Amino acid sequence: MADLRREETSRPTRRSRPGWPTLLLLLAVCYAVAALGSVAAADSGETYRALDRPSWAPPGWLFGPVWTVLYGTIAVAAWLALRGDGGGGSGDSSRTGRVPAMVWWSVQLALNLAWTPLFFAADAYGWAFADICLLLLALAATIVAFARRRRAAALLLLPYAAWVTYAAALNLSIWLLNA
Prior knowledge:
The protein is an all-alpha fold. It contains eight helices and no strands. Helix 2 (about 20-40) runs antiparallel to helix 4 (about 65-85).
C-alpha cells in the first residue's frame, strides 16, 4: 500500500506538466516581442539599406522569415523546458530548475526586445552591440538551464544562438563601418 501511494505521488501532475494552453501563451509572448520590435523599427528596411554593410551581410528580406521561425522555436523550447522530462539524463520532470530556466529565458527575451529599438530607432550601434553581447550570455545561460530540464529544449535554442552570434558580428561590422 505504501508503495502504491509513493508511486501515485511521484507521477507528474497536470500542474507540473504544462499543456497546450501554456505553449500558446509562450508563442503569444514571443510573437508579441517580435511585434513590439517591428513597431520600434518601422523603417528598419530603409535604414538597413542605407547602412554601409559588410559583403557577407544578408539581404533585408531574410530577417522576417528567419525571425518568424526562431521565435517559434524559442517558445517551443521554453514549453519543453517547463514540461521537464529529463535534462542531462536525470529523468526528473519535477519543478527542479524550472524557475531559473524561465528567469534566464525571460532575460534573454527582454534583451532580444531591447536590441531592435537600440539599433534601428536610436541608431545606437555600440549600445546595440553591448545589448547583443549580453543577449548571447543570457542565451548561453538559458541553454544550460534548459539542458538540465530537457535536452531537446536546449537543442532547439542552438539555431537561435547561431543566428544571434552572426547578428552580433554583423552589428559590430556595421557599427565600425558607420562610425
